[in-house]
Each structure stands twice: as structure tokens, then as C-alpha cells.
Specification:
313 residues, 9 helices, elongated
Length: 313
Amino acid sequence: LLILSQLLKHTVMVAIDYCLARWTSDAISGKTELELKNCSHCEDFNHSPYSKVFSILCCLGIVLCLVTSIAVEWTGLKVTKKLHSSLLNKIILAPMRFFETTPLGSILNRFSADCNTIDQHIPATLECLSRSTLLCVSALAVISYVTPMFLIALVPLAIMCYFIQKYFRVASRDLQQLDDSTQLPLLSHFSETVEGLTTIRAFRYEAKFRQKLLEYTDSNNIASLFLTAANRWLEEYIGACVVLIAAVTSITSCLYSKLSSGLVGLGLTYALMVSNYLNWMVRNLADMEIQLGAVKRINGLLKTEAENYEGLL
């Protein structure tokens, strides 16, 4: 449902842009013909058919945007409820040795941070990933349709983008694992401090526990800082190469193949947006790979065997 709604929505969006480009080209051509004929009694260009088609496509696009948003929220809520209910049942029926060998911060992290990731971040990231991917594919398709010579340079650009995003995803995944590993001691220490607050005050160890908490917080903040910095590093120069190649091929086609000005503008507009689409596609792909680690960790707890309550009364 999610993929189908995204496909329909982006097909309509491309159709809206193409309709607008064709409308502009025909209007300019009609005005030029009237000026060349120097006819004062000739009828002006009729904008009515174009405006009707454009209005219908815009209304359809708004409806499909609403359907896509509802599909994302509905699928995310359904998955979250199922995982949380299964995890709660497993933890309640878990044997006592599970609680003795598993840190309390780890269990709290599964119910708090991981459930929050599945509830709020994964559906939004999935929607952004599908949207950015389809936008990138549609942009490259429009550029290739307007200027077929662009297909020659598309293959080396795709290979270059593949290797860069592969390197970026590995670094981003490792940094996210470092962020998760430094968050667990922080939560465990905070939970243990709250539970043993009376004992800590009795022995006057407040400063020691406060310093330890600050050290754990600094370690987690350093990992988060590098993760945020890595997310800002992406292949900007590939987008610049796409814009350059699309501009050169569009101008060449316009000069030698009499390509309409509206289609040239459409191709250049999509070329300028390819860089942003590529950045978001790679970033969302890395974020999705990272966030699915929450599902993996919860799935690990779902394999916990329940306590055997069958026995003598």
C-alpha cells in the first residue's frame, strides 16, 4: 500500500511538471507565431484546456499525498502495537535468571528508546526513503527523456554514487552502534543511582556518582556529535556533475535539435534538484539501516523462553 501510493503520487507530480512545461512551450510558440504573422484579428492562445488538466492533476496529487500519509501512519502504528505487545508479554513471563543476568538499563532501553524509534522514526524514515528514491529516479528519467545524451554519463555517475554511499553507510552504522553502546551505561548508571539514592547519601558518595554520570553523558554526546557530523557528509559533487552534464546536453539539444524551451527548463529544474534527492536518499538509507537495529534488538528479547509454571501446587 505504501509503495503503490508513493508510485501513484510521484507519477502525478511528474505529470504536473510536464503539463506545466508543455503549457509554457505552447504558449510561447503561439505568441511567437502571432507576432510573425502580424495578425491583429487572430485569436489569442487558448489556455483553458491546459488549466483544466493542470487543476485536475493538482487535486489528484493532493488526494494522493493524503493517502500516502495515512498509509505511513497506519502501517507504523500497526507494527509498533504488535511488537510492543509481544515484548511486554515475553518480559512479564521471563524467568528470574533473565532479570539477574540482564542489566535493567538494557530492558528499559528496549521499552523506551527502541520502541520510540519504531513508533516515530522508522515510519517517517521509510516514507522519506521511498519519496527521495522515487524523486531521484523520476528526476533522472525526466532528464533522460528531455536529453537522451544524458544516459551516456549516467552509468559512471551511478557507479561513483554506489561506492560513496556504500562507504558512508558503513561509517554511519558503526557510529550509530557506538552511540547505542555508550547510551546503555548511561541509562544503567542513572537507574542504579536512583534506586540506591539512600545508600549513596549515607556514604556521601554524591560527588563520585555525579562525576561518573557526567563522564557517561560526555561519552554518549561525543558519539552523537560524530554521528551528526557524518550525516552532513555526502556526495555534493555528484549533484554538481549531474547539473553540469544536464545543462550541456540540454543546451546542445536546444541548439541543434530544436528542443522546446519549456522542456529544457523542466530538465534543468530536475537536474538542480538531483543533488538534494541523492543526499536524502543516501542519508535515509543509512538511517533506515541504523533504525532497524532497534527491531533487531527487540526481536532478540522476543526469543526469551518463558518461565515454566507447570509443577506441583
